[in-house]
Automatic annotation (TrEMBL):
The keyword Calcium does not apply. InterPro entries: Thioredoxin-like_sf, Thioredoxin_domain. This is Thioredoxin domain protein. Residues 1-106 form the Thioredoxin domain. The keyword Magnesium does not apply. GO terms for molecular function: protein-disulfide reductase activity. One of its GO terms (biological process) is cell redox homeostasis. The lineage of its organism: Bacteria, Bacillati, Cyanobacteriota, Cyanophyceae, Nostocales. Pfam families: Thioredoxin. Keywords: Redox-active center. GO terms for cellular component: cytosol. Belongs to the thioredoxin family. PROSITE patterns: THIOREDOXIN_2.
Amino acid sequence: MVLSVSERTFTQEVLESPIPVLVNFEAPWCGLCRIIHPLLLQFQTQCSDEIKLVGVNADENFKLSTTYRLKSLPTLLLIEKGIVRQRLEAFRSRDDFRMALEEIKLSYSSSYKIYNSSETADLECQSA
């Protein structure tokens, strides 16, 4: 189940989260939102330790919709330490969406982060 977030809880659950948060802006009338929902649940199961998934009803949280300049639904924002790192919108297909989720999963998996930190340390040593 995806945690539902509102304007009241957004700062605590998203902006102050110790791990990156994938925010799904959706609405009950949005057909595409319902189509991608199973893919998001699968993503949540696979990445729950590295990325938190939350849902925001765009109709009921107009301030957030305006703040993040939503143009279409669904719109997903990957927010890390209060900063939007990635924006997913205007999906061409279900496969297009699935590939975008895979990229996020790969970039935030533990093994990738460990590899990247050691690579960064190597680069720092070389430049010193």
